[in-house]
Amino acid sequence: MDPSPLSKETLQKFRSAFYDSPKNILAQNVCSRVDPFDVCLSRKQLEDVQHVFNHKVDEGKPMTNQKSSGRCWIFATLNVIRLPFMKQLNIEDFEFSQGYLFFWDKIERCHFFLNNVVEVTKRNEAVDGRLMSFLLHDPTTDGGQWDMIVNVINKHGLMPKKCFPESFSCEASLKMNRILKSKLCEYAKAIRDLLAKGAGDSEVRLLIEYQMENIFRIVGICLGIPSETFTWNYYDKNKGYHTIGPISPKDFYENHVKPIYNVDDKVCLVTDPRPTNPFGKSYTVDCLGNVVGGRACIYNNQPANVLLDLVKASIKDGEAVWFGCEVSKRFAPKQGIQDLEIHDFPLVFGVDIQTTLTKAERLLYGESAMTHAMVFTAVNTNDENEVTKLRIENSWGEERGEKGYLIMTVPWFNEFVFEVVVDKKYVPEDVMDVFKQEPVVLPAWDPMGTLAQ
What we know:
There is one protein chain. With about 450 residues, this protein is α+β, with helices and mostly antiparallel strands. Helices cover about 40% and strands about 15% of the residues. It is built from 17 helices and 14 strands. The chain has helices at about 10-20, 20-30, 35-40, 45, 70-90, 100-120, 130-135, 145-155, 170, 175-195, 200-225, 250-255, 305-315, 345-350, 360-365, 410-415, 430, and strands at about 55, 230-235, 240-245, 265-270, 280-285, 300, 320-325, 330, 335-340, 370-380, 385-395, 405-410, 415-425, 440. The strands form two sheets. Strands 1, 4, 5, 6, 7, 8, 9, 10, 11, 12, 13 and 14 form a twelve-stranded mixed beta sheet that branches. A two-stranded antiparallel sheet has the order 2-3. Strand 2 (about 230-235) and strand 3 form a beta hairpin. Helix 10 runs antiparallel to helix 11. GO terms for molecular function: hydrolase activity. It is an enzyme of class 3 (hydrolase). Pfam families: Peptidase_C1_2. This is Bleomycin hydrolase.
């Protein structure tokens, strides 16, 4: 079919149809002055929201805030880990240092990228090829996946936030990331030029070491450099004084955190309903990771109801759950509600949005992907033991929802949750056996490789 331009007559027909409807005029009057999504909020759905649950873990304080950074995956992980840690030490409030893991992820991520440049160049990928272009587009993103945070914790350990507090570039990472991207693109060219001259592996390693010294300096200037050892003093709930250290972050994790929460005991399950990616299979994504020599990002693909059952089992046993979702869809951020019915788009616009395609179709057509990580802390079940709603600890401060906590319906879970992390003891044997498979490698740009930010 040959394309035809929009004619004057066609546009006039659209204009007449618009103004023939008083509802359109009312909607225009309101939406031209107010957030269109707020206009679409359903009063009825707002009235039905209650943060009361019959299965709830002990929650932590204070409510965390990632501010203007893409560190939700780090915050969500540390928010899960701190709950049993605080209980074990009998402390009132506590945060692990998000900035500490952010520092080491930046260092490791840049090194991983430079080694990816070597690998992809050796595949004879052109600099303007799809894969190299994809890698160069955002080489130092803040976002991440579960297996990536496990890599950083296992290699570098953990610190209390009191011992490595936030910096400006932790809370507002844009400018630092611009500096790093500029250098990484420059360094990618240098690596490709060196390989084009026939350089051996030893020459390339020396070049990357020189480049990483500069990267380390930049990140250290922006974020500070964590001490090799620290001493942490704290009071318990009974005002008793305690001290730990001097100790290395790695030993702090191994000796004081790992016996309570071992990241290696947790497994990541995803739900990707695209026909090309059958359930019961294992998947990974080309060039995705953050630590050279670390574990790969492995996805065990299961139906959404399996993920929901595992969340229920974990919460009922007292353990919070890390999860990844597309946070912005059918979401009332101020009220903290994730509900397919929270917006009445047809009433205002005459058409529906965001759920007109299936979950698989949204993935295929670029309309959906996992974008944010948070923590499930409660579920509500009915008389049939079916989950009816879920409670979420976010990392955006106390201003949204119920002092920072959100509420999610099960239909929303089915449509927009993409992965959960639970202890393997809750996972049936046949589901665990999927991890033994050789994973199918998805391309680097596949939506399942999208990073939580």
